[in-house]
Amino acid sequence: MKKMIATILMAVTPLAFSAQLEISRTNVRANIPGSDNTAAYMLVDNVTKEDVRIIGAESDVSDFAELHSHKMDGDRMIMRHEKYIDVDAGESLRFAPNGYHVMLIGLKKRVKHGEQATITLKYDDGSSQAFKFDVIDPRKAAQ
C-alpha cells in the first residue's frame, strides 16, 4: 500500500509544482502569400514565486515553432534562435516585433485575419501550457 501511495505521489507531484505563466495580448501575424513562416507575440506574466524557463514551443498551424529574438549587432538587427527564455518570478516579459517572439516555421496553410492558432509553451520542468492566439493582419486591424 505504501509503495502504491508513493508511486501515485511521484506521478502527481511534478504537476503540482509545474510553473504556470499568465499569457495575454496574444496574436499571430497573418502571413503574406508565398511566405511559409510568421511570428507570434504575447505578454508573459510570471505570477509565481519561482523563475520560469521557457525551453520551446509548438503550434497546430506550423511544422515547427522556435523561440527567437532580435538583437542589434553593430548597425544591423539580427534574428537569433534562443534555446530558452527566462521569465523571473513576479516579472513580465513582452514578446513583440524587434524583440522576443515565437517563430512559426513551415505553416501548414496560410493563416488569415480572424482565425485562431494554438501555441503550446514548453517549460524546463517538463510541463507545458497551451494558449489560443488570434491571427491578425495589421492592415485589417487598423480599419
From TrEMBL:
Xref: InterPro entries: LpqE-like, Lxx211020-like, PCuAC_sf
Keyword Flavoprotein: no
One Pfam family of this chain: PCuAC
Residues in the signal sequence: 1-18
Keywords: Signal
Coiled coil: none
Keyword Signal: yes
Domain of life per record: Bacteria
Protein name (record): Copper chaperone PCu(A)C
